[in-house]
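Q: Hi! First time doing this. I have a protein sequence and I read that you can turn it into a structure. Is that right? Here it is:
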Amino acid sequence: MLETRGLTIRFGGHVAVDHVSCRFEAGTLTAIVGPNGAGKTTYFNLVSGQLPASEGQVLLDGEDLSALAAPLRTRKGLGRAFQLTQLFPQLSVAENVRIAVQARAQGRGQGGLGLLRIWSDRRDWIDEAHALLAQVKLADKRDLPAASLPHGDQRKLEVALLMALQPRVYMFDEPTAGMSVDDVPVVLDLIRALKARKDCCILLVEHKMDVVRELADRIVVLHNGAKVADGEPAAVIASPVVQQAYLGMAAEEPA
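A: Yes, that's right. Below is the predicted 3D structure, encoded as structure tokens:
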């Protein structure tokens, strides 16, 4: 479904991502791991279009997206959640999700509001937004300003926005970072449900190896911008190159 070929970016003389080639299939979850500064988020930025590549290609279902800016890649089916939440802080929780639903529908030619129509005319969009908020356990907070939510709820709201776009590829960059113990299972259950659908592929940057072990079908390890390991979780975690890259972090005994 998604492929990167020789994806590279240089900042001056520094190569932050170094000729990374990977293929990602529908119905799979791939964890992108590595020590701090390995190039994981930069690789995500290259795939989703936040940064232009110095070399290489990004392909979705065989279509080369390399020349497209981030918004156009989103319309093609690349969905991205960030380490730092990207919300409309002064709008309500429900309005944030309704805007995402509207953007997806209009991007697919499914109509709009027009000058003579109001939100209440699109009850289907409103109902979909409310259903998504129920899935992320925010139904009781839908009328609050997004800025008033605690950090964990803001992360859940961003997942709802991503789900509203219905992408073919879901890219989660440390989705549980900063969350309380009570909030983490909600997000992990949503990711499990997306994976179970089998019609999309999921990329996950995550430092918590217990989460990686539980969710990932495959692990790709980046170190100094280069891909140094790629395979099934147990084999990758046990490999000497990964243990060395993590300075012992990945060598911990399974729970």
